[in-house]
């Protein structure tokens, strides 16, 4: 029998501190959202009902969700072939691309949106004035580091050269190799980057606000400025949406397929 590992008392204390730091503000927000907007007394679900019956809530959340899916599709279409080619043919470029992936962390979103508004000012109206054009382009830049590092980790966990050579030895071309062989093996990494991108797009405020698009984050900010107790309700709902994406990410991580053993080949 393996000896049981003892948990240090100090670790338990720090764990409890972390739990309290996380849950106490959340519990306070929840209790605040349960107060009546007229009397201020607890407890009622009227604030949640107010938010869920607001047509703007569903309109903005649908817009943000569609833009998020578009951003995920564009980012995957750009980065999966790029990262695959770098790992296969030019691994020396990995540090350079990794450095470029850090740029969105350095450039503030307010600077990014001002620059993009100036660059695309002369673009067609359907692109410049549409959230599905302008916002998706901006969010692809924001999602670049999250998607790249997820895919890079996925590609480093597989033998790209062996899989490619085996596929091509059976007569498969580059598109077939990428779609039928490589992509299934990095599916968990691609989904991880996708869920992170979804969480980013659903919560991004600066770019959407300055570009004057009424997304879900802009709606949340509007409620926070104009409604007291419903602001707590919409904050809890936004938190739940973000954590739903994070739990999906956790489920994807646990659902990774086991590597093929020598006896299964």
Uncertain stretches of 5 or more adjacent residues: 256-265
Mean pLDDT: 84
Main sheet summary = none
- The percentage helix is over 70%
Radius of gyration from the alpha-carbon trace, in angstroms: 23 Å
Task: Write structural notes for this entry.
The chain has 265 residues and is an all-alpha fold. The chain has one domain (57-255): MetI-like (MetI-like fold), CATH 1.10.3720. Helices cover 75% and strands 0% of the residues. It contains 14 helices and no strands. It has helices at 9-33, 46-52, 55-88, 94-101, 103-106, 109-119, 125-128, 131-156, 160-169, 174-185, 187-203, 206-210, 216-226, 229-254. α3 (55-88) runs antiparallel to α11 (187-203), α9 (160-169) crosses α10 (174-185) and α11 (187-203) runs antiparallel to α14 (229-254). It is globular, with a radius of gyration of 23 Å.
List keywords for this structure.
disordered C terminus; MetI-like fold; 0% strand; mainly alpha; 265 residues
Describe the secondary-structure layout.
Layout: H1 9-33, H2 46-52, H3 55-88, H4 94-101, H5 103-106, H6 109-119, H7 125-128, H8 131-156, H9 160-169, H10 174-185, H11 187-203, H12 206-210, H13 216-226, H14 229-254
Helix pairs in contact: 1-14, 2-14, 3-8, 3-11, 3-13, 8-11, 9-10, 11-14, 13-14
Q: What is the structure about, briefly put?
A:
This protein has 265 residues and is mainly α.
């Amino acid at each position: 029998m393996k000896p049981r590992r003892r948990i240090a008392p100090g670790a338990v204390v720090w764990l409890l501190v972390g739990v309290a730091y996380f849950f106490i503000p959340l519990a306070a927000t929840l209790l605040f959202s349960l107060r009546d907007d007229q009397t201020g007394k607890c407890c009622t679900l009227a604030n949640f009902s107010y938010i869920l019956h607001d047509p703007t809530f569903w309109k903005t959340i649908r817009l943000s969700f569609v833009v998020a899916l578009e951003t995920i599709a564009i980012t995957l279409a750009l980065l999966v072939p790029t990262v695959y080619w770098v790992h296969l043919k030019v691994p020396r470029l990995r540090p350079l691309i990794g450095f470029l992936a850090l740029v969105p962390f350095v450039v503030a979103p307010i600077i990014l949106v001002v620059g993009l508004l100036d660059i695309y000012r002369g673009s067609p109206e359907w692109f410049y004035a549409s959230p599905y054009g302008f916002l998706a382009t901006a969010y692809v830049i924001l999602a670049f580091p999250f998607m790249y590092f997820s895919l890079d980790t996925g590609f480093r966990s597989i033998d790209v050269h062996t899989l490619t050579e085996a596929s091509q030895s059976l007569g498969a071309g580059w598109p077939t190799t990428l779609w039928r062989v490589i992509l299934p093996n990095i599916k968990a990494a691609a989904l991880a980057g996708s869920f992170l991108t979804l969480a980013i797009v659903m919560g991004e405020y600066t770019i959407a606000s300055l570009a004057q698009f009424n997304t879900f984050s802009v709606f949340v900010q509007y409620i926070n400025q104009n409604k007291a107790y419903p602001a707590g309700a919409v904050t809890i709902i936004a938190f739940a949406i973000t954590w739903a994406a994070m739990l999906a990410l956790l489920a994807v991580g646990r659902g990774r397929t086991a590597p093929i053993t020598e006896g299964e080949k």
